What does this fold into?
Amino acid sequence: MTILNMLNFARGYVTVKATGEHLERFINICTSENINIWNVRAHGRCTFTACVSVKGFFRLKNPCRKTGTKIHILSRKGMPFLSLRLRRRLGLLLGFALFLIVSCWLFSHIWYIDVDSSTSIPREELIRQLELAGVSEGTPIRQIDPNKVQASMLNLNPRLVWAWPHVHGNSVYLEVREKVSVPEILPTNPCNIVASHSGLITSMLVKEGRHLVTEDMYVSKGQLLVGGIMDSVAVGVRFVHADAEIWATTEESVSEDFPLSENETTRTGNRSLRYTLKFGQFPVSTPLIGKSFAAYETEETESVFHIGSVYFPISLIKTEYMETITETVVYPQETVEEKAQQYLENLLQNSLGNGIILEKRFIAEKPDDKTIRLTLFATCSRQIAVPQPIEEEINIGGETD
It folds into this structure.
């Protein structure tokens, strides 16, 4: 509908049928007297239909008298005639007015909130803090001051460096930026390097400090490897923060008990449904569609009603109930050993960090009928240099420095 058609509908117009011998002269007189007439369509030589404004219709008397044209009203359209028909239907008018009031109220409040998902901060945490900042479902849009919301969010969450609520229609999208972590400052306190594990040194890279051991040398746990006390004729005694990378071949072992049976929960395939229509904070649920189960798992999906960026406080929640049964499953010993070996190997690898497992062997024992004990013995290559403050007493091959 064009703007001109909307204006004509607002002012009202009638569709007329004109019959006569001088229709062209009739139209010319209407044009000269500024009578608004449009959509003229001929139906033979002596008949045409056209649309005439309400004001123009009452001025057709003079052109009709001069040309002998007869006018018949075919239809009346527009707001003036619509209001006349609705005047006797008070309930319909009140319902329409109530609809306008409720629509204006709904469009002037926030009914949907979304947050930036590109951060490591949980979505629930950001939404909770946004509510504390004064933005929640049902908040009037006019009360949202982005600058105040930003200040509140930065005070509530020290991990944020910037936050801004974007209002689209009656929804809010919170865009945030996290603080960039400050680069780690290298420590400068005086310290020595000691061995975290016993083993045979395979490589050394001393960046700062005094060598006390060499490659192909066996060291024990806690032994001093690099000293942080430097002594020279030119400078004298000085304390430094010893730094080194020392790799050694070590012997490691990990042991743990694993059950041969466990309770396993599985879904039977039986399902039931329940729908909930939520109006704001007031849910209305349907009866359970299907059977009720003694044990079950649930999955819930919520769909918010919206038209484009205009959201309404109406949502449909679908809750699906899936029946489960719990059974005791006994596994073959070979299967348990295979999974246990992988578990122990991953456990050891995580403790090694950048280290690697060079050789490995497993020993299985069965303390009872329900358990198997698996032990992993491994030869590993790992970094054994760890700092120790100089103030502490350090053993060097059994002596105190």
User: Anything to note?
Assistant: The radius of gyration is 43 Å. Confidence is low (pLDDT under 50) at residues 392-401.
